[in-house]
């Protein structure tokens, strides 16, 4: 297989690399169509797409909560529409656009009416059916304590058990239920992840389409350092009860939530577990508030939080790699093949990226690039380098780099073939998440 990472910059000088200028590119449909066509055309010719079923996976992690979220938190709507039109011009048989945002995401504020209308208009124009789908089985609003289960039937998913082949197995502990995900019942998670058992709940849509193209927004991430082509595939898992994000406890007791040991933090974790067992019930807020008070009484440094949003998180990156393995090698019967089952493409929206407290509270980053690739690991290494980070300090990227050593991967910048080291000439200073400050430089 010929692997490639192809980048296009939308600036020609440092002075042009500013938010005010870059954000106008999202309003220039002809520009977006031209850039995306230029990047895709050599690798996805018309005959590759014609009469095929295409799955587009945007980053729809959360609805806007502040004005700048529009340009730096999610895949931009107009970027998505331009990519969609380029695909439609190649005459596919159908297109699915779907994601599984966080449980508190308001879907209608994320996939807004103007976007739905525009997608419908394109569907009619090209006479190709387009479906938009929310893959979540469960939603929960912690503020209102509103829990909704079984939004989609389990029959819409394929359950994979990677068992001992999971990247999580080396940090699993016999008889100890340590895996956690914020705002989810730890007992449910223990049914899916423990020593020798590592299950994921994958939408059937992944296996019912011929071509998969993700459209990530390039951002920093609290738990994995950055999020882009690798992390975006977490959205094919429809139930967060199958997604461990950290391990309870400090590093001194087999966890990765914070360094060392701390009795107040330990009890804070015990109480938040109790709260999560009572989601949707009146006791939920009582246990949550008590947990929060104990955590504050432990006087944690800014880089430590109850959801393990720091560089010591040794769980999330492993879960991400598990999901990428399933996406690439998984079969519709829930087994893993020895050979690649589908090629995963990514079209990264890095015109304006996200920095700081990503992925949910990012600030705009004047990255100024669009990227198309069929190798997620190298794509993220390139993006991490562009963001000025030491990729060897980010476990997700370091491991992806090691996996790439035996592959020939061509990197192109503005049609010129270059090496990863040359990307550093175009790097920009990026503010890392609070839990990664003073670590990535």
Amino-to-carboxy terminus distance: 34 Å
Fraction of residues in β-strands: 15-25%
Overall number of structural domains: 2
Main sheet: strands, sense, barrel: 12 strands, mixed
Got a strand count? 19
**SS class:** alpha/beta
| Poorly predicted spans | none
Q: Please state the overall shape, judged from the principal axes of the Cα atoms.
A: globular
Mean pLDDT: 95
Whole-number radius of gyration?
21 Å
The percentage helix is 25-40%
Question: How many helical elements?
Answer: 14
Describe the fold and architecture.
The chain has 441 residues and is an alpha/beta fold. The chain folds into two domains: 3-155 and 204-235 and 340-436, no CATH class; 251-309. It is 29% helix and 21% strand. The protein has 14 helices and 19 strands. The strands form four sheets. Strands 1, 2, 3, 4, 11, 12, 13, 15, 16, 17, 18 and 19 form a twelve-stranded mixed β-sheet that branches. The chain has a three-stranded antiparallel β-sheet with strand order 7-10-9. Strands 5-6 form a two-stranded antiparallel sheet. A hairpin with a 2-residue loop joins strand 18 (409-413) and strand 19. The longest helix has 15 residues, at 283-297.
Defining traits:
441 residues, alpha/beta, 2 domains, 12-stranded mixed β-sheet, 3-stranded antiparallel β-sheet, 19 strands, globular
């Amino acid at each position: 297989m010929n692997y490639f990472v192809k980048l296009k910059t939308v600036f020609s000088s440092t002075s042009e690399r500013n938010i005010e200028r870059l954000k106008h590119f999202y309003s220039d449909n002809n520009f977006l169509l031209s850039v995306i066509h230029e990047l895709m055309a050599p690798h996805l010719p018309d005959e590759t797409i014609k009469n095929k079923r295409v799955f587009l996976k945007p980053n729809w992690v959360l609805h806007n909560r502040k004005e700048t979220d529009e340009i730096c938190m999610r895949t931009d709507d107009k970027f998505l529409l331009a990519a969609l039109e380029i695909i439609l011009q190649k005459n596919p048989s159908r297109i699915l656009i779907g994601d599984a945002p966080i449980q508190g995401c308001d879907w209608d504020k994320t996939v807004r009416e103007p976007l739905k209308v525009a997608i419908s208009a394109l569907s009619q124009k090209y006479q190709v059916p387009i479906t938009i789908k929310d893959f979540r089985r469960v939603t929960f609003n912690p503020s209102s304590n509103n829990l909704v289960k079984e939004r989609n039937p389990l029959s819409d998913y394929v359950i994979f058990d990677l068992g001992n082949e999971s990247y999580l197995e080396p940090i699993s502990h016999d008889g100890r239920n340590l895996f956690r995900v914020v705002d989810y019942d730890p007992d449910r998670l223990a049914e899916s992840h423990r020593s020798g058992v590592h299950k994921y709940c994958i939408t059937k849509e992944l296996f019912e389409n011929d071509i998969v193209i993700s459209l990530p927004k390039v951002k920093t991430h609290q738990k994995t350092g950055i999020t882009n082509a690798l992390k975006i595939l977490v959205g094919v898992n429809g139930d967060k009860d199958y997604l461990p994000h950290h391990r309870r406890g400090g590093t001194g007791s087999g966890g990765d939530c914070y360094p060392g040991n701390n009795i107040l933090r330990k009890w804070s974790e015990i109480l938040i577990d109790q709260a999560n067992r009572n989601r949707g019930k009146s006791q939920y807020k009582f246990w949550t508030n008590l947990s929060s008070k104990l955590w504050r009484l432990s006087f944690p440094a800014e880089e430590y939080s109850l959801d393990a949003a720091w560089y010591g998180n040794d769980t999330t990156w492993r879960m991400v790699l598990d999901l990428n393995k399933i996406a690439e090698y998984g079969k519709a019967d829930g087994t893993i093949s020895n050979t690649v089952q589908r090629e995963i493409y990514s079209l990264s929206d890095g015109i304006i990226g996200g920095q700081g407290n990503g992925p949910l509270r990012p600030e705009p980053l004047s990255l100024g690039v669009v990227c198309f690739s069929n190798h997620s690991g190298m794509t993220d290494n390139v993006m991490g380098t562009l963001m000025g980070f030491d990729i060897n300090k980010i476990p997700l990227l370091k491991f992806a780099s090691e996996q790439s050593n035996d592959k020939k991967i061509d990197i192109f910048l503005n049609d010129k073939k270059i090496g990863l080291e040359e990307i550093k000439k175009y790097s920009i200073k990026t503010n890392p998440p609070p839990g990664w400050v003073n670590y990535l430089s």
